[in-house]
Amino acid sequence: MTLHFLGKTLKNPLVLASGVLGNNKQILERVHENGCGLVTMKSIGPAPRDGHKNPTVIDLGCGMINAVGLPTPGYAHMEEEWQALETRTFPLNASIYGGSVAEYQTVAKFVAAKHPDFIEINISCPNSEQHGMIFGVSEQSAFDVVSAVKQVIGDIPLIAKLTPQAPDIAKIAKACEAAGSDAICAINTAGPGMVIDIESKMPILAFKKGGLSGPMIRPIAVRCVYDIFQAVSIPIIGLGGVTTGKDAVEMIMAGAHLVGIGSGVRYRGIEIFKKVNQELNAWLCAHDTTLEQIRGAAHGRDAVKNKGQAQ
Amino acid sequence: MNAIQTPVMLRVAQKKIHGPSFASLYFDHSLEFKPGQFVMVWIPGLDEKPYTISHHSKTGFAITIEAKGIFSKKAVALEEGDLVGFRGPFGNGFNILSSPDIAVVAGGCGMAPLAPLVEALDKRIVFIHGARSKDFILYPERFDTPRQICTDDGSQGHKGFVTDLLEREIITRKKAGTPPLKMVYTCGPEIMMYKIFLVCESFDIPCQVSLERYMRCGFGVCGACVCGRQVVCKDGPVFDSKHLRTMEDFNKTALLKSGKPVQLDQYFSWRCQ
Description:
The structure holds two protein chains of two kinds.
Chain A: E1 3-5, E2 8-10, E3 14-16, H1 25-33, E4 39-40, E5 57-59, E6 64-66, H2 79-86, E7 92-96, H3 101-112, E8 118-122, H4 139-152, E9 158-162, H5 169-178, E10 183-186, E11 190-194, E12 196-197, E13 202-203, E14 209-213, H6 218-231, E15 236-239, H7 245-254, E16 258-261, H8 264-268, H9 272-286, H10 291-294, H11 301-305
Parallel strand pairs in A: 3-16, 4-7, 7-8, 8-9, 9-10, 10-15, 15-16
Antiparallel strand pairs in A: 1-2, 5-6, 6-14, 11-14, 12-13
Chain B: E1 4-11, E2 14-18, E3 22-27, E4 38-43, E5 47-56, E6 61-66, H1 70-76, E7 83-90, E8 102-107, H2 111-120, E9 126-131, E10 148-151, E11 158-159, H3 162-176, E12 183-187, H4 190-202, E13 207-210, E14 226-227, E15 230-231, H5 232-235, E16 238-240, H6 241-244, E17 253-255, E18 261-263, H7 264-271
Parallel strand pairs in B: 8-9, 8-12, 9-10, 10-11, 12-13
Antiparallel strand pairs in B: 1-7, 2-3, 3-6, 4-5, 4-7, 5-6, 13-16, 14-15, 17-18
């Protein structure tokens, strides 16, 4: 199921979501070997950061709630990792974040010099007051951060990762496109939500609130991808609650070019990528169709015909 | 197995102090459990940390804690009736062989995860336990299985290392022509486990090692505990020789909370804060 995405060749349309595994080259490689077309590093920030105290990740059965809090060694303290990644044999998406447009730019410039295949800007994490999401809920700040990053990363394709907390995610996507983003990744976690332990009378997460992910947010993700597809011509990485091949089909019909998987690793293991690929192929075979034919199919024929290609 | 996902709050039913720095906390709650698995222990308002289950029965379980850092000092100071949250059990647990030709090698509080294993194994196994000194020998009266003790200061048993005793056992068996060890199970300081692994490798004996890394989710998603290409909370915490051979980070590096890989001594001094 080899395909082209922003000038790069991927072995299949599945993407590892940022924040899941992604901590070192070896585990990224293992995820790739297990059937993931494009792996994403954990978001890299401007300075060393521990993230929040535990509990940080809780499985609620229908999905998870997390407030890990953007832990990062800091872009300038990952020399061994960058060296290891130089000899990688898989396509790499480097996720970055900052606390200001200037910080995004600094991190992006440094990371670009390490030659990842893509740079994803996380303007959508709800788990820090100072980082991420505040840039993804206003069209102007999304535009500013995308255009600033675009200036310093040369010809590396830029992906903007969006939050469903934006009042109108399609408008944010349009602003990112206008600022030069090469693709949209949607969605980051929804909410934030909260779970309270009634015996101790305390929120379970140390950060109290956290982003929701997994099957419970899939309808939100599908709606967001659908809205974004109508608003922009650049390709979309659709993610949020995908755990099966049929979920992937749905996301592609909403307009996704690639399909991300994150929390799904919780429910089906690292092998989920292989399984979803098999299920997706089986579905396409059984319906005698292709990825291209079903992409955006939920929008009707004319809407799809007018879309640009993502080559 | 039906692991608990959202913390279940349990009251400390009983507390037993062992020596100068250990305490076991008992809870009246039935858990499905395999020796070597761990639970995430939540003290509301403080933190949540992984601990292996040290005692297990049909109606309850216990964890044994060594007071080292902020969390563990608070945990050993808990009293009967105090509320503690649990998620789990998580992880793979030991792969249990039924044979008398087995060695279990514990170092310090590495005894805790091995204790339920020893109780599940043949009583004729070779059981070696090392500690700093006599006072740090956990569960002195617990086992029917005879135990060979060694201490760093010689205050009890052999003065020296667990590897001395293991090697002696292997060589004695070789000379006597008795069956070689079929498996060595170990838990303790990582440097000790690494040396046990090397001894096992040199004599072609398989071993299973229980590793420790900083953890967040406990179920293989967040990646905080990766060791090479293995996810310690999900693929482990028990790893066999086949995996250990490929784990470049074993006895070398571990990730700090930020995700930065550091040398083990730096990691452990941070963990004990």
